[in-house]
Amino acid sequence: MILSSKKRVKIICALIMCMIFTGLSGCGKEEEEPYSSPSFSNNYEQTSEEEEATITDATLTNALMVASYTDAYPVNPEVSGIFSATMTDAFPAGMYFDNVYYNGLAGFKINVDGEIWSFYDAAEMASATDTTEDYVNNLWYGYKSVYEEDTTYVCIAANKKTGSNIIVSYVNPAKYQMPDYTAKEYLSMMVDRYEDVSVRTVTFLGEKYACLDIPEDQTAFGRRTQFAIDRDGLIIIITFTMNGDTPLEEAVGMLSPLYY
Prior knowledge:
- By secondary structure, the protein is α+β, with helices and mostly antiparallel strands.
- The protein has 7 helices and 12 strands.
- The strands form 2 sheets. An 8-stranded mixed beta sheet has the order 1-8-9-10-11-7-6-5.
């Protein structure tokens, strides 16, 4: 159903802008401005020219190469049989095993060392996303559907030394009454905030993702690189925020395609 009142759309969008990402203030880095994301609007106009797999930044190119060639199999071969049998039935929010997060919906995994890089537990996720520990556990164990919310955070990995982080989130366009909105259109809504940036289509984790790469000098959070893909009515977003001396390649290198 398309909203008929432009005034109502503006009010809803303003409310969404105030509510979304309220809790993600750096995710590990104190006293930062809140992480923000654009709201949906049916007054959206494409203002930037989208590029098809044109990479000019050497660092991003290197990071994409790492993401394309990282080993695609579980670190522990003894559990590979378990996951090959269960991942197709895994909860949409993904599942954790030791220091690995498996996302069967988008087909990738994140492997952290558990020391410098670690996953947020349910209590930390609840604090960062302004929800409750029960909510997070219900989401992780499949008692709550990712389709019930407009935006859902399913995984956060953080670097304890620098505050750099990786956030996996889902946006449900149907909740904004725009079910046909795409990952590329979603990322394009942020382009006007920055200079000389555009949404590109790149090969990431063996698939075509929309990519928005924001230089460090244009954000208050550090370098921010977002990859987004459409899956089963959702927009799946993987956001890398790099602070301090953490290179993008290091964070991207912890992700790999999931084959089963």
